[in-house]
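Q: I'm building a small set of examples for a reading group on sequence design. Run inverse folding on the following structure and report the sequence directly after it, with nothing in between.
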């Protein structure tokens, strides 16, 4: 599968390959209040080690050094253990994820709310007698700002409240958002010829339940020597072990079948030309 971009200057890519994951049963909100004390116990919710109340979510700025007048995003990345899930930001559900910014300085807000990188899975939950929205694997929420022209210091403070659940219990977390830096001017490249392009190639065989997986994934950006203004293509190749199979990006959800998901968590110095990955062969 491939996806095209136009190269600007220096770039970096982070690619995550998410395979199908199984659904698990939600916990009723009445019970969650009695089970939060499990947060200090090892082994709960798919984690091998205890987690403190701040939780596993990671908070950062993209880019980390935006200058006055440039755009910057607050990014919250939540990686979920196998068999676990978290809820969306939909306020119609009392157990939804909540992200609140209490203080921002040196910034102009370009978005009023945090936006997820992909849509949640919707499913009817008998315990709640309603549909709920869940995320599995990884979810990234972002909110965009612009650094003010006269900003000498950027401050962003707030918190992200969310639950991580499995088929036994839920755990509540409160991740602080505390970001700050001093925007500084940086010299522009004298010309496009001075741009340095770093080759991008990555190969990995993900693990499942502590064992090597049945598929090897390779990500490659080509051509490696592309110049600013030229087009590059990100190719994701899946080599599946004999006797095993995977599902397409358009596979309808059903018992034992979920579509493959390819998610770009971040990239810099690139303009997106295609909005989705395109398979190189028919399934």
């Amino acid at each position: 599968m491939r996806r095209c971009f136009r190269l600007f200057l220096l770039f970096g890519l982070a690619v995550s390959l998410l395979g199908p994951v199984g659904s698990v049963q939600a916990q009723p909100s009445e019970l969650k209040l009695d089970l939060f004390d499990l947060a200090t116990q090892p082994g709960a919710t798919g984690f091998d080690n205890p987690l403190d109340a701040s939780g596993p979510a990671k908070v950062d700025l993209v880019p980390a050094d935006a200058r006055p007048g440039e755009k910057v995003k607050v990014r919250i990345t939540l990686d979920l253990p196998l068999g676990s899930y978290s809820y969306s930001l939909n306020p119609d559900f009392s157990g939804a994820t909540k992200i609140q910014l209490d203080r921002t300085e040196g910034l102009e807000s370009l978005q009023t709310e945090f936006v997820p990188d992909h849509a949640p899975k919707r499913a009817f939950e008998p315990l709640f007698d309603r549909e709920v929205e869940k995320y599995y694997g990884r979810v990234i929420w972002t909110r965009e700002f612009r650094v003010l022209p006269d900003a000498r210091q950027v401050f962003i403070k707030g918190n992200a409240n969310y639950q991580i659940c499995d088929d036994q219990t839920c755990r509540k977390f409160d991740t602080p958002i505390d970001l700050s830096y001093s925007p500084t001017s940086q010299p522009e490249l004298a010309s496009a010829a001075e741009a340095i392009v770093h080759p991008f190639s990555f190969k990995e065989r993900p693990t499942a339940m502590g064992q090597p997986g049945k598929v090897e994934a390779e990500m490659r950006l080509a051509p490696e020597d592309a110049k600013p203004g030229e087009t590059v293509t990100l190719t994701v190749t899946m080599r599946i072990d004999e006797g095993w199979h995977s599902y397409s990006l358009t596979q309808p959800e059903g018992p034992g079948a979920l579509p493959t998901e390819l998610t770009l968590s971040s990239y810099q110095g690139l303009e997106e030309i295609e909005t989705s990955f395109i398979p190189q062969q028919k399934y």
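Residues 29-35 form the longest helix (7 residues).
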